Amino acid sequence: MNTLKEYIKENVVITNKEAEKFGYTRYNLSELTKSGQLERLRPGLYQLKGKVIDDFVLISSNSNRIIFSHQTALYLHDLSDRTPSVFHISVPQGYNASHIKKRYEDLQVHYVKKDLYEIGKTEIKSPQGNLIPIYDIERTICDIIIDREKIDKQIFYRCHKKIL
Question: Which residue ranges does the record assign to the AbiEi antitoxin N-terminal domain (predicted)?
Answer without folding.
Answer: 5-48
